[in-house]
Amino acid sequence: xxxxxxxxxxxxxxxxxxxxxxxxxxxxxxxxxxxxxxxxxxxxxxxxxxxxxxxxxxxxxxxxxxxxxxxxxxxxxxxxxxxxxxxxxxxxxxxxxxxxxxxxxxxxxxxxxxxxxxxxxxxxxxxxxxxxxxxxxxxxxxxxxxxxxxxxxxxxxxxxxxxxxxxxxxxxxxxxxxxxxxxxxxxxxxxxxxxxxxxxxxxxxxxxxxxxxxxxxxxxxxxxxxxxxxxxxxxxxxxxxxxxxxxxxxxxxxxxxxxxxxxxxxxxxxxxxxxxxxxxxxxxxxxxxxxxxx
Amino acid sequence: xxxxxxxxxxxxxxxxxxxxxxxxxxxxxxxxxxxxxxxxxxxxxxxxxxxxxxxxxxxxxxxxxxxxxxxxxxxxxxxxxxxxxxxxxxxxxxxxxxxxxxxxxxxxxxxxxxxxxxxxxxxxxxxxxxxxxxxxxxxxxxxxxxxxxxxxxxxxxxxxxxxxxxxxxxxxxxxxxxxxxxxxxxxxxxxxxxxxxxxxxxxxxxxx
Lengths: 294, 208
Description:
By secondary structure, chain A is mainly α. Chain A is built from 13 helices and two strands, in the order αααααααααββαααα. Chain A has a two-stranded antiparallel sheet. By secondary structure, chain B is of the alpha+beta class. Chain B has one domain (4-197): Nuclear Transport Factor 2, Chain: A (Roll). Chain B is globular and about 70 Å long. Classes of the chains: A mainly alpha (294), B alpha+beta (208).
């Protein structure tokens, strides 16, 4: 359930956005120094999170009898109750720019319903599902540098090797990546998820989210993930398509293709929630945390 | 080493069989529920928009007998539960379960014979945690169920890709209840249901 939405018009804005993200990231880490200090000390545990002080209402709720966390790991046994799962702490990432974020959330929401969704619907009406899956495979294969770099930086060499073999196999024998030839080839030894990016890598190293942030076009993010996004931009081959509007068009097409396979997910979330902004925020933070630990 | 694939195959088979044999009460009960839902969705006599109302009614009967709406609502409201009068609690459970049924039943309509795998079952006293995964065309979605034993095992939380239904609502409810009364919250849920019934475009109901 990818709650991200908006077309990727990262183009030349990216440098500006990157600078802004950097400034905000450091500004926030300065502000939240008191909170992050203990986390940085405990950075050797991979899944460290910013120990934001949870609201009392949250604490009480998690305390009663949650035996497992979201993935079925035991967090409570006997009397030694742990009040929150790690994901709960991540979900309590501060949102100091809430008003600003809500404005962009509404902007992205309109963008989805008025532009992206009609285009994706028209596209999926014309193009059957199977070719759309090929396009998905192609762009996924193309994003290999992001995954490889992130896995190497996380010292997950087995997973990086598997990704490399898949990339070579799919590119050479899968018509440049359109056919996912290697999807049935399972590694002998189980490896974690290879769907990694730089934001998740920073998280794996122990960096906290900092604060929650919604970007126009890009969608939900955090201080940490914004920084990662800038790095990912430079690792994305389609960023180097010349001239810039072709690069933008390629990314836009990738996005439309992705959305065409996910129409209805965002609608369900929005239909079902009383405060869609809050629902997306919670879902984004928890999903990212899960991906980081997969 | 030509026999290796055969040996591995046998091992897998033995493991698969044994995991079926050892699947406990909770998982079996969950499987019965999911199978019922799948049966309704893939029943050719129930297909088509004309049967929508009947399909929805049937699905809700199944959902009502497998979900512990009371426990689910209590956990979603968390601290707010004690701020409600018993009457409000009851009203809340009714409204909230209706909202969930409406929205998620609609989502399930898209079901296209995806396969459900039961990965792991853990039981601790009267609670159970069951990991499953749904195999979709381009990805596998992990869906976990948390169950509690009443007269029968009942589901009270569903975790999709690490996002817990109860906890996602908890953050929304605690935010709303920090500004408004429980009564206003119940009214919001009812308004939402009405808007969905009137078939309003989701695009018009942007929450603030």
